[in-house]
Specification:
The structure is a single chain. The chain is an alpha/beta fold. Helices cover 30% and strands 17% of the residues. The protein contains 9 helices and 13 strands. The strands form 3 sheets. Strands 3-2-1-12-13 form a 5-stranded mixed β-sheet, with helices on one face. A hairpin with a 6-residue loop joins strand 12 and strand 13. The longest helix has 15 residues.
Length: 283
Protein backbone atom coordinates (compact mmCIF):
# COMPACT_ATOMS: atom_id res chain seq x y z
CA UNK A 1 0.00 0.00 0.00
CA UNK A 2 1.24 3.47 -0.93
CA UNK A 3 -0.05 6.89 0.12
CA UNK A 4 0.52 9.84 -2.20
CA UNK A 5 -0.24 13.52 -1.57
CA UNK A 6 -0.98 15.42 -4.79
CA UNK A 7 -0.62 19.16 -5.28
CA UNK A 8 -3.10 21.61 -6.81
CA UNK A 9 -4.76 19.98 -9.84
CA UNK A 10 -6.94 22.98 -10.81
CA UNK A 11 -8.78 21.14 -13.56
CA UNK A 12 -5.60 19.80 -15.20
CA UNK A 13 -7.27 16.50 -16.00
CA UNK A 14 -4.79 15.08 -18.58
CA UNK A 15 -1.88 15.62 -16.20
CA UNK A 16 -3.76 13.96 -13.34
CA UNK A 17 -4.43 10.95 -15.54
CA UNK A 18 -0.78 10.75 -16.54
CA UNK A 19 0.35 11.11 -12.93
CA UNK A 20 -1.92 8.28 -11.76
CA UNK A 21 -0.56 6.11 -14.55
CA UNK A 22 3.01 6.95 -13.55
CA UNK A 23 2.21 6.06 -9.92
CA UNK A 24 0.60 2.82 -11.07
CA UNK A 25 -2.17 3.81 -8.71
CA UNK A 26 -4.32 0.91 -7.55
CA UNK A 27 -7.51 2.08 -5.77
CA UNK A 28 -7.83 -1.29 -4.07
CA UNK A 29 -4.44 -0.85 -2.42
CA UNK A 30 -3.24 2.76 -2.53
CA UNK A 31 -4.52 6.06 -1.17
CA UNK A 32 -4.46 9.57 -2.64
CA UNK A 33 -4.41 12.76 -0.62
CA UNK A 34 -5.40 15.88 -2.57
CA UNK A 35 -4.14 19.19 -1.14
CA UNK A 36 -7.07 21.17 -2.54
CA UNK A 37 -7.84 23.44 -5.49
CA UNK A 38 -9.18 20.59 -7.55
CA UNK A 39 -10.89 23.04 -9.89
CA UNK A 40 -10.55 26.18 -12.03
CA UNK A 41 -8.20 27.40 -14.75
CA UNK A 42 -7.00 24.06 -16.10
CA UNK A 43 -9.91 23.65 -18.51
CA UNK A 44 -11.36 20.33 -17.36
CA UNK A 45 -12.65 20.83 -13.84
CA UNK A 46 -15.76 18.72 -14.38
CA UNK A 47 -13.74 15.74 -15.59
CA UNK A 48 -11.33 16.18 -12.69
CA UNK A 49 -14.11 16.22 -10.10
CA UNK A 50 -15.79 13.20 -11.65
CA UNK A 51 -12.55 11.21 -11.60
CA UNK A 52 -11.74 12.01 -7.96
CA UNK A 53 -15.36 11.42 -6.95
CA UNK A 54 -15.25 8.04 -8.68
CA UNK A 55 -12.10 7.19 -6.69
CA UNK A 56 -13.47 8.71 -3.47
CA UNK A 57 -13.15 5.54 -1.39
CA UNK A 58 -9.39 5.76 -1.93
CA UNK A 59 -9.07 9.55 -1.62
CA UNK A 60 -8.73 12.18 1.09
CA UNK A 61 -9.40 15.78 0.05
CA UNK A 62 -8.75 19.05 1.84
CA UNK A 63 -10.66 21.88 0.20
CA UNK A 64 -8.84 24.85 -1.32
CA UNK A 65 -9.95 28.41 -1.95
CA UNK A 66 -10.99 27.63 -5.53
CA UNK A 67 -13.08 24.68 -4.38
CA UNK A 68 -14.84 26.76 -1.74
CA UNK A 69 -15.39 29.55 -4.26
CA UNK A 70 -17.13 27.10 -6.59
CA UNK A 71 -19.34 25.90 -3.73
CA UNK A 72 -20.22 29.52 -2.93
CA UNK A 73 -21.10 30.22 -6.57
CA UNK A 74 -23.34 27.13 -6.54
CA UNK A 75 -25.59 28.97 -4.06
CA UNK A 76 -26.23 31.85 -6.48
CA UNK A 77 -29.17 32.25 -8.83
CA UNK A 78 -28.80 30.53 -12.22
CA UNK A 79 -28.48 33.87 -14.03
CA UNK A 80 -25.53 34.79 -11.81
CA UNK A 81 -23.97 31.35 -12.24
CA UNK A 82 -24.18 31.80 -16.00
CA UNK A 83 -21.78 34.76 -15.80
CA UNK A 84 -18.80 32.82 -14.42
CA UNK A 85 -16.07 31.38 -16.64
CA UNK A 86 -17.01 28.53 -19.04
CA UNK A 87 -15.01 25.94 -17.12
CA UNK A 88 -16.95 26.50 -13.90
CA UNK A 89 -20.26 26.87 -15.77
CA UNK A 90 -19.74 23.37 -17.10
CA UNK A 91 -19.61 22.09 -13.52
CA UNK A 92 -22.48 24.25 -12.25
CA UNK A 93 -24.90 23.12 -14.94
CA UNK A 94 -23.82 19.46 -15.15
CA UNK A 95 -26.51 16.86 -14.51
CA UNK A 96 -24.47 15.41 -11.66
CA UNK A 97 -23.60 18.78 -10.11
CA UNK A 98 -25.78 18.21 -7.01
CA UNK A 99 -23.99 14.92 -6.30
CA UNK A 100 -20.56 16.48 -6.82
CA UNK A 101 -21.35 19.50 -4.63
CA UNK A 102 -22.74 17.36 -1.81
CA UNK A 103 -19.57 15.28 -1.93
CA UNK A 104 -17.34 18.39 -1.97
CA UNK A 105 -19.14 19.83 1.05
CA UNK A 106 -18.35 16.65 2.99
CA UNK A 107 -14.60 17.02 2.48
CA UNK A 108 -12.13 18.40 4.99
CA UNK A 109 -10.16 21.57 5.67
CA UNK A 110 -7.49 19.64 7.55
CA UNK A 111 -6.56 15.96 7.62
CA UNK A 112 -4.25 14.31 10.14
CA UNK A 113 -3.14 10.70 9.98
CA UNK A 114 -1.86 9.57 13.38
CA UNK A 115 -0.25 6.41 12.06
CA UNK A 116 1.72 8.20 9.33
CA UNK A 117 2.07 11.36 11.46
CA UNK A 118 1.35 13.57 8.45
CA UNK A 119 -1.08 16.49 8.32
CA UNK A 120 -2.55 17.94 5.13
CA UNK A 121 -3.99 21.43 4.66
CA UNK A 122 -4.41 23.51 1.52
CA UNK A 123 -2.55 26.70 2.48
CA UNK A 124 -1.22 26.69 6.04
CA UNK A 125 -1.75 26.85 9.79
CA UNK A 126 -1.94 29.87 12.07
CA UNK A 127 1.34 30.28 14.00
CA UNK A 128 -0.47 30.22 17.36
CA UNK A 129 -2.26 26.92 16.64
CA UNK A 130 -1.25 23.59 18.10
CA UNK A 131 -2.34 20.65 15.97
CA UNK A 132 -5.32 20.05 18.25
CA UNK A 133 -6.41 23.69 18.01
CA UNK A 134 -6.13 23.55 14.22
CA UNK A 135 -8.20 20.36 14.15
CA UNK A 136 -10.94 21.93 16.28
CA UNK A 137 -11.05 25.04 14.10
CA UNK A 138 -11.28 22.93 10.94
CA UNK A 139 -13.97 20.66 12.36
CA UNK A 140 -16.13 23.69 13.18
CA UNK A 141 -16.15 24.70 9.51
CA UNK A 142 -16.47 21.11 8.26
CA UNK A 143 -19.59 20.53 10.37
CA UNK A 144 -21.19 23.68 9.00
CA UNK A 145 -20.35 22.87 5.39
CA UNK A 146 -21.85 19.39 5.59
CA UNK A 147 -24.97 20.47 7.50
CA UNK A 148 -28.28 21.91 6.24
CA UNK A 149 -26.93 25.31 7.38
CA UNK A 150 -24.23 25.36 4.68
CA UNK A 151 -25.93 28.03 2.48
CA UNK A 152 -25.47 30.64 5.22
CA UNK A 153 -21.74 29.97 5.48
CA UNK A 154 -21.24 29.87 1.71
CA UNK A 155 -23.15 33.14 1.21
CA UNK A 156 -20.81 34.80 3.73
CA UNK A 157 -17.62 33.08 2.63
CA UNK A 158 -15.82 35.93 0.92
CA UNK A 159 -13.91 38.70 2.64
CA UNK A 160 -10.46 39.48 4.02
CA UNK A 161 -11.79 40.08 7.52
CA UNK A 162 -11.02 38.73 9.98
CA UNK A 163 -7.43 38.56 8.73
CA UNK A 164 -6.25 36.90 11.93
CA UNK A 165 -7.74 33.97 13.81
CA UNK A 166 -8.57 34.44 17.48
CA UNK A 167 -10.21 32.20 20.07
CA UNK A 168 -12.46 35.15 20.87
CA UNK A 169 -14.09 35.08 17.46
CA UNK A 170 -17.54 33.52 17.18
CA UNK A 171 -19.87 32.26 14.46
CA UNK A 172 -19.27 33.33 10.87
CA UNK A 173 -16.29 35.52 11.76
CA UNK A 174 -14.54 32.58 13.40
CA UNK A 175 -15.32 30.28 10.47
CA UNK A 176 -14.22 32.83 7.87
CA UNK A 177 -10.96 33.42 9.76
CA UNK A 178 -10.33 29.66 9.79
CA UNK A 179 -11.06 29.42 6.06
CA UNK A 180 -8.82 32.39 5.26
CA UNK A 181 -5.99 30.84 7.25
CA UNK A 182 -6.29 27.29 5.95
CA UNK A 183 -7.05 28.07 2.29
CA UNK A 184 -5.63 31.52 1.46
CA UNK A 185 -2.60 32.28 3.65
CA UNK A 186 0.96 32.59 2.38
CA UNK A 187 2.46 35.37 4.47
CA UNK A 188 1.48 36.65 7.90
CA UNK A 189 2.95 38.70 10.74
CA UNK A 190 4.06 37.40 14.12
CA UNK A 191 0.45 37.54 15.36
CA UNK A 192 -0.85 35.51 12.45
CA UNK A 193 -2.41 38.47 10.59
CA UNK A 194 -2.55 37.51 6.92
CA UNK A 195 -1.32 39.73 4.10
CA UNK A 196 -3.57 38.71 1.21
CA UNK A 197 -1.61 40.68 -1.40
CA UNK A 198 1.83 39.11 -0.86
CA UNK A 199 2.10 36.08 -3.16
CA UNK A 200 5.63 36.01 -4.56
CA UNK A 201 8.68 34.07 -3.41
CA UNK A 202 10.13 34.53 0.10
CA UNK A 203 12.43 37.53 0.23
CA UNK A 204 10.07 39.77 -1.73
CA UNK A 205 7.61 40.42 1.10
CA UNK A 206 7.30 43.61 3.15
CA UNK A 207 9.23 43.87 6.44
CA UNK A 208 7.38 42.23 9.31
CA UNK A 209 5.85 39.51 7.14
CA UNK A 210 6.95 35.88 7.17
CA UNK A 211 6.07 32.74 5.24
CA UNK A 212 3.49 31.10 7.50
CA UNK A 213 5.89 28.26 8.34
CA UNK A 214 8.74 30.60 9.37
CA UNK A 215 6.97 32.90 11.85
CA UNK A 216 9.18 33.51 14.90
CA UNK A 217 7.82 31.88 18.02
CA UNK A 218 5.24 29.75 16.23
CA UNK A 219 3.83 26.77 18.11
CA UNK A 220 5.69 23.50 17.84
CA UNK A 221 3.81 20.68 16.09
CA UNK A 222 5.19 17.16 16.11
CA UNK A 223 3.82 16.26 12.69
CA UNK A 224 4.98 16.69 9.13
CA UNK A 225 2.73 18.93 7.04
CA UNK A 226 1.96 18.71 3.33
CA UNK A 227 0.25 21.62 1.59
CA UNK A 228 -0.30 23.34 -1.75
CA UNK A 229 -1.68 26.76 -2.74
CA UNK A 230 1.60 28.64 -3.28
CA UNK A 231 2.78 27.96 -6.83
CA UNK A 232 5.35 30.80 -6.72
CA UNK A 233 7.01 29.00 -3.81
CA UNK A 234 7.00 25.76 -5.78
CA UNK A 235 8.39 22.61 -4.29
CA UNK A 236 9.64 23.30 -0.79
CA UNK A 237 10.78 21.02 2.02
CA UNK A 238 11.90 22.37 5.36
CA UNK A 239 10.82 23.08 8.92
CA UNK A 240 8.57 20.01 8.81
CA UNK A 241 6.63 21.39 5.82
CA UNK A 242 6.41 19.94 2.32
CA UNK A 243 4.79 22.32 -0.19
CA UNK A 244 3.84 20.65 -3.46
CA UNK A 245 1.95 23.16 -5.60
CA UNK A 246 4.39 23.15 -8.49
CA UNK A 247 2.24 25.26 -10.79
CA UNK A 248 0.87 22.69 -13.22
CA UNK A 249 -1.86 25.07 -14.38
CA UNK A 250 0.83 27.69 -15.12
CA UNK A 251 2.98 25.34 -17.21
CA UNK A 252 4.95 23.76 -14.36
CA UNK A 253 4.46 20.24 -13.06
CA UNK A 254 1.86 18.20 -11.22
CA UNK A 255 3.53 16.69 -8.18
CA UNK A 256 2.81 13.67 -6.01
CA UNK A 257 4.65 13.07 -2.74
CA UNK A 258 4.79 9.55 -1.38
CA UNK A 259 4.40 9.92 2.38
CA UNK A 260 4.12 6.39 3.73
CA UNK A 261 7.87 5.81 3.76
CA UNK A 262 10.50 7.32 6.06
CA UNK A 263 12.00 9.41 3.26
CA UNK A 264 9.28 11.10 1.16
CA UNK A 265 9.58 10.57 -2.59
CA UNK A 266 8.54 13.03 -5.30
CA UNK A 267 6.91 11.90 -8.53
CA UNK A 268 6.02 14.49 -11.17
CA UNK A 269 4.58 14.90 -14.65
CA UNK A 270 5.04 17.94 -16.89
CA UNK A 271 2.15 20.25 -17.70
CA UNK A 272 0.54 20.07 -21.11
CA UNK A 273 2.45 22.22 -23.64
CA UNK A 274 -0.30 24.83 -24.01
CA UNK A 275 -0.26 25.91 -20.37
CA UNK A 276 1.43 29.16 -19.36
CA UNK A 277 1.15 31.90 -16.75
CA UNK A 278 -1.00 34.80 -17.98
CA UNK A 279 -0.50 38.40 -16.76
CA UNK A 280 -1.90 38.91 -13.28
CA UNK A 281 -0.34 35.94 -11.53
CA UNK A 282 -2.14 33.58 -9.17
CA UNK A 283 -4.72 33.55 -6.41
Amino acid sequence: MATYAIGDVQGCYPELQRLLEKLRFDPARDQLWFCGDLVNRGGQSLETLRLIHELRESCVVTLGNHDLSLLAISQRRPDAQARVNPELREVLFAADAPVLFEWMRSQKLLHHDEQLNWTMVHAGLAPMWTLKQAQRAAQDVERELSSPRHPRLLRNLFGNRPAVWSSRLQGLDRQRATINTMTRMRYCDVNGRIDFDAKDIPGTQKPGLYPWFEVPGMRRRDTRIVCGHWSALGRFAGLGVHAIDTGCVWGGKLTALRIDEEEPQYITVDAEPHRHRPPGGED
